[in-house]
Amino acid sequence: MTRRFRMVLSGACALLAATLCLAYGQHARDQVEQERAEALERYGGEVVRLVVATEGIEAGQVVDRGNVVERDWLADLAPADAVTQLDAVIGSEVSVPVASGAPLTSLNFRDPADAVEVPADRVAISVPVGNDLGLPPATAAGDTLAAFAVTEDGVRSISGDVQVLASSQTGSGLMGAGTLTVAVRPGEVAPMLEASGEGSLRLALPGDDAREATGEGTAAPSEVPAETGDAEDDAAGDGASGSAGPVSEDDVETSGGEGA
């Protein structure tokens, strides 16, 4: 066996091995797709074609045919605003990272300028907007709301400083629907989520003069007795003097002389 023959034989074996590897890989992919199709068929429901990431796509990367593919997806399980056409996103830059195997949505191509900025001392939460939330008309980002829990036991103040970060409300007034993203203090997260979950959450838009009192839940009760007590003291003093008018120095001297 000559050296040249051995080289040709080695090359042929290597080519055969590469071909077998490629064939096996394609067979494995076809088998996975077939199993997926059978699972979708067993589950039932309408099937849609979505653009899915074949690998993790970080923010700033461009979508190409190497990192995305079209796949069948159950319509009931498809995320909102999912991308259904591959050509619509090829060459587009991703602004929000995509996990491998996840469908691409319009959120992944959101303008970074539209992202909400959460204050350092706040926590951002999303509140579903329903007909019973009482959301004031034309509520927009930058507004400050007051939150209350309305139950059978009465009305309880949750916060008077709920900052609106973003609103995806559709419709207007009390009949609006969508999602409201707000920023609250850390200690107010649990009460807000609890009230929202049980349907007792109500939102109000206080005026500038009423915002401070609303933030405390009710007006400070300690001020009312103090004012009442001062009025009673004034009334008692007026009754003791027997005169509603001012007392002059001459009257004081005269009274002192008579007493003497």
What does this structure look like?
With 260 residues, this protein is of the alpha+beta class. It contains five helices and seven strands. It has helices at 3-43, 189-198, 208-215, 223-241, 249-259, and strands at 47-53, 68-74, 123-129, 144-151, 154-167, 178-184, 201-204. The strands form two sheets. The protein has a five-stranded antiparallel beta sheet with strand order 3-6-5-4-7. It has a two-stranded antiparallel ribbon with strand order 1-2. It is elongated, with a radius of gyration of 36 Å.
Keywords summarizing the entry:
disordered C terminus, two-stranded antiparallel ribbon, five-stranded antiparallel β-sheet, 260 residues, alpha+beta, Type Iii Antifreeze Protein Isoform Hplc 12, 3 domains, 5 helices
Q: How would you sum up this structure in a few lines?
A:
The protein is an alpha+beta fold and 260 residues long.
Overall structural class, as computed from helix and strand content, comes to alpha+beta
Q: What number of domains? A: 3
| Relative strand content | 15-25%
Round the Cα radius of gyration to an integer and report it: 36 Å
How far apart, in Å, are the first and last alpha carbons? 149 Å
Assembly form of the protein: single chain
Major beta sheet, specifics? 5 strands, antiparallel
| Rounded average pLDDT | 74
User: Percent range for helical residues?
Assistant: 25-40%
